[in-house]
Amino acid sequence: MSVSTHAPNVPSLLNGKWPDDVGILAMEVYFPSTAVNQVELEQFDGVSAGKYTIGLGQLNMGFCGDREDINSLCLTVVRGLMEKNNVEYTDIGRLEVGTETILDKSKSTKTVLMQLFAESGNTNVEGLDTTNACFGGTQALFNAVSWVESSAWDGRFALVVAADIAVYASGNARPTGGVGAAAMLIGPHAPIVMERGLRAVHMEHVYDFYKPDLSSEFPVVDGKLSILCYLGALDRCYQRLADRAGSPGKPFTIRDADFFLFHSPFTKLVQKSLARLKLNDFFRDPAPDTSEGGVYAGLDELKGRTLEDTMGDKAVERLMMKSSGAEFQAKTDPSLLLGREVGNMYTASLYGGLASLLATRKLAEIAGKRVVLFSYGSGLASALYCLRVSPDASPKSKLAVLAETQSHIPLRVKSRRTVPPAEFEKTMKLREETHHSAPYRPVCSPDELFPGTYYLASVDEKHRRTYERVPLEAGVKVFTTLRSPLREATA
């Protein structure tokens, strides 16, 4: 059945009111089929044992060869979401891509994705690409939610894509790379809802990480500055969110949310980030209980200091990581499966964390819970916001279906092909030498890609790219059928 993409009076179709519980209806995450082990990479690079695994908190790093690019990643993750949830392309009214992986200074990745809509005939799809380092995916999500909640909404779903290929030149930053994509279907009556009013933003001009050379995939990075910027932005956002979420006599603290998810350049920074939030709580508390068994036990030495003068203090950092250890294990560690195994997916990193949480926790452990998410993009743009998970954990609930679609992630992580560091380095060299080459025919074999993966077939002399798809081995497993409010109202 086709559906009109013109809805002149949507409120009347929805009983005279705008939609409630707008949020994430469905998710799909993609990461490549190849990875390099960080222990082996330490040995190959000749660095001290534990530098990447303990110092950065990483286990493996996903990477891709010359068959995959930002367009193929997005094609793969969107097609996967649409198929698994049996969504018709005519039910999409907005599509926005958040990415910092740029192939063309004019043509957006969103327009490349429109080839998936061709058969349906749906060309009435708002949205384009949004770019600022790792923050573009979050801004695309905010825009999608705002569209559904606005007078511009036409009763159809919004689709958000966050995807990137994170590669660095040889050196200290290379082990913090990664690659991945996340797609999210946005609409009303969602099992994961964006909490209205609980959002705080911090924006600033700084050169901590940027990509001025458009002929190269590699960024210019000031690692120490970037970490200080990240933690400083976290402070600002948390203070603003706490002011909004708290009430007189009951300040907001990390005890008022069940899970805290963070953008993850490397997972040790995530652990430091939760510790930083507890430090914020300590300084905001007019009478912090530092007695034995108290919330802030062992922190007496911090009395008389200020939040600002602790920034960059390694002793304070270690003290707070120890103090917040239990909270980290309960509230944040469940979100780090993909962060440790795939690495930094840039715009998709935070949403890989959300998918990891859904994939590794039982429904009863997440139903009805509040999730606080911190998004950071160098340059800089940052936000802290809240999601509320539906309390309905019944077997056929929307939440149960959403969690089931993420349940394959741990097995897929284990099914990857782990290659020797020498092969990884060879592939990185190939990408560097062929970046933006035209005409070009990729040399890596598509046979090594996961079933259902789109890949680059060729680039012609005018830089026009064509893509093909690895066949699915056993067809598509459909978990549910999602229909837009417009379709349901006009059925």
Let me know the number of strands.
Answer: 16
Oligomer: single chain
Structural class: alpha/beta
Mean of all residue-level pLDDT scores: 94
Q: Give a quick account of the main beta sheet: strands, pairing sense, barrel closure.
A: 9 strands, mixed
Helical residue percent? 25-40%
Radius of gyration: 22 Å
Question: What's the arrangement of secondary structure elements?
Answer:
Layout (H helix, E strand, L loop, with lengths): L9 H4 L9 E8 L3 E4 H8 L14 E4 L6 H15 L7 E7 L10 H5 L15 E2 L5 H13 L8 E10 L11 E10 L4 E12 L5 E2 L9 E2 L1 H23 L13 E4 L4 H18 L29 H10 L1 H7 L5 H5 L7 H12 L2 H4 L3 E8 L3 E9 L8 H9 L2 H6 L2 E3 L1 H14 L19 E6 L5 E5 L15 H6 L1
Parallel strand pairs: 2-14, 4-5, 4-6, 11-12
Antiparallel strand pairs: 1-7, 1-8, 2-3, 6-7, 8-13, 9-10, 12-13, 15-16
Helix pairs in contact: 6-7, 7-8, 11-13
